[in-house]
Amino acid sequence: MAQPFGSLLALLLISYLAATMATAAYNVVDFGAKSDGRTDAAKAFLAAWAAACGSNQPATIIVPSGGFLVSQALFSGPCNNTGMRMFIKGTLMAPAGYSDSTQWITIKYVEGLSLYGGTLDGRGQAFWACKNSRRSCPYGATSKNLLLSGIKLVNSELFHMSIFASSGITLQGATITAPGDSPNTDGIHIQMSSFVTITGSTMRTGDDCISMGPGSTDVWIENIKCGPGHGISIGSLGGAAQEAGVQNITVRSVEFTGTQNGLRIKTWARPSNGFVKGVTFEHAVMKNVQNPIVVDQNYCPGIVNCPSRSSGIKISQVKFNDVQGTSATQVAVKLDCSPSNPCTGIELQDIKLTYQKERSLSYCKNAKGTASGVMIPSSCL
């Protein structure tokens, strides 16, 4: 039975001619790949990868126009050169249906790899239908360890991209798309990774546009358009008693349109040694966003089997600066912090969030900090 996979890479073609300028070039068609969208091209892709990776000089892999069915592929290093490039002009397609596999296309242990071009289609519709029917479903797929420019990712089963246990990752000019009602289709999830930069991208998904899990440090996110979706989130955190912290995060120049949340930190109400500190959210525009600014330390989606204890995640040094626009609910700012570990060092500066023709409100619980500049709604700190 066909086995689909959900996580995707897809990269904007910069120049097909540029690919031919590399010292060594490997076209997947020359290794037996067929662009008919039906014949599994995984072996051909892996053979082209092996040849390029084994080259002692800079090498380029070329994927021409057409649809290439790829059942599953692990592009693994280390390689003999650090000048690897892959130009994708066509579409890579996951098998239809869904399976138990945790990965579709994975790149790991490779240094100096750049990928450009085309589309990766995870064909996650069957998996979403399974999830929405509340049946027992497989986990879906993720991909990780990527250095990408100009990607286009569509219809992942779950996370479109997972950046895990990596450092020095740069993502520019991404377009990520899935229906607003597709479950758990985060655009990009970051975890146990540092020095990650995401800029100039558009994300329309059924979950967080970008989420940052435990161990996310030194992350820079800028010039993002998000919506529909659940916003940009730190968390969820506190799923384990022993958990790496999140720190040195900057999110700036983001436009949220019709999202469930805007700028969010979410933690479970249970003991944990994790923390969040050194976070700056600034220059954000909200357009009809349900929860523009929210810290939720009683996070429990679905309100089923919710923990009833106090969150151990310590939140400090978090700044919200120049956040403007419209809220879809009256409470535009919500800071619901842990009773045992109150939020400290929260800064609200130049906030202007309106709600229809009524006065917008702010709500604070166990939160300590300061407010300055224009404050609409009035600060509850």
TrEMBL record:
InterPro entries: Glyco_hydro_28 (IPR000743), PbH1 (IPR006626), Pectin_lyas_fold (IPR012334), Pectin_lyase_fold/virulence (IPR011050)
Catalytic center residues: H230
Pfam families in the record: Glyco_hydro_28 (PF00295)
Matches recorded under SUPFAM superfamilies: Pectin lyase-like
Annotated GO biological process: carbohydrate metabolic process; cell wall organization
Family named by the database record: Belongs to the glycosyl hydrolase 28 family.
Protein known as: Exopolygalacturonase
Organism of origin: Musa troglodytarum (fe'i banana)
